[in-house]
Amino acid sequence: MPADLDPVTRHPKAAKPGEPVGMHNATCYGCGDRSPHGLNIVNIAGEGFTVHADMRVEPWMEGGPGVIHGGLLSTAFDEVMGAVPKLVAGAAVTGHLEIDYLKPVPVGSVVRIDAELLGMKGRKIYTKGVAHLVDSDEPLAISHALFITIKGREHFSAYVENSQAADEYRPYFAP
Ligand SMILES: CCCCCCCC/C=C\CCCCCCCC(=O)SCCNC(=O)CCNC(=O)[C@H](O)C(C)(C)COP(=O)(O)OP(=O)(O)OC[C@H]1O[C@@H](n2cnc3c(N)ncnc32)[C@H](O)[C@@H]1OP(=O)(O)O
Q1: Using 50, 70 and 90 to split pLDDT, how confident is the model at 174?
Q2: Which atom number of ligand 1 is nearest to the Cα of residue 28?
Q3: How many whole angstroms from 148 Cα to the centroid of ligand 1?
Q4: Is residue 114 flagged as an active site residue?
Q5: N or C terminus: which one in the chain shows less Cβ crowding within 10 Å?
Q6: Residue 24 CA to ligand 1 centre (angstroms)
Q7: Which residues form the Thioesterase domain (predicted)?
Q8: Strands lying side by side in the sheet with 110-121
Q9: Please, what are the domains in the chain?
Q10: How much is the pLDDT for 38?
Q11: Cα–Cα dist 163/87, whole Å
Q12: Pocket of ligand 1 from Cβ distances under 6 Å
């Protein structure tokens, strides 16, 4: 992370502490409420530049016997940490995501991910996430991720026809 970070302020339209951060997209696998096989994560804005979300570890999320699949946990990190840019900048996509898995996360538990802004430089937004059980502060996994701000229309215009919601998006992407 660069030493000469930019000053950051909360976006005037950002969710207030305790409010849900808006979905990326209704058909987003992470947060969409119209993603039939998705995680349906609800990101909640916190104080400062933080976001958190709880996720019940369902049997279909299993990797090793009785514990969550690591790739699925990485999706949850990507989703919750990916909501942090919405507090400060708007649309952004993941450029880099890394995870240290410290302890298994049991099927049947409720895992909480706490995400925070570490800093911003130009289009680059540096974040950290910690996964723990809702009733414990012991970290089970720690993630660092870099998000890059984008212009949504430009970034997705070549792909929007692949969307489950292409019919609804088409008018917004019309030249
Ligand atoms: C009316 C309109 C309606 C619009 C509706 C839109 C609604 C939806 C809105 C938002 C949806 C968000 C959904 C989030 C879902 C959860 C998060 C995900 O899963 S996202 C999916 C996975 N990620 C990707 O698919 C990215 C694929 N990568 C790219 O597209 C490009 O590489 C991109 C955009 C990340 C950067 O490309 P460049 O050409 O724009 O910019 P460059 O110059 O390469 O990078 C900018 C700066 O970032 C650094 N950078 C880029 N990637 C880096 C990396 N991997 N590591 C370190 N630095 C990196 C570069 O070195 C550069 O730094 P220096 O400004 O020069 O200092």
Answers
A1: confident
A2: 15
A3: 4
A4: no
A5: C
A6: 14
A7: 66-127
A8: 44-45, 50-56, 110-121, 124-133, 141-149, 92-101
A9: 44-173 (3.10.129.10)
A10: 96
A11: 25
A12: 24-25, 28, 30, 78-79, 82, 91, 93-96, 122-124, 146, 148, 150, 152-153, 156, 172
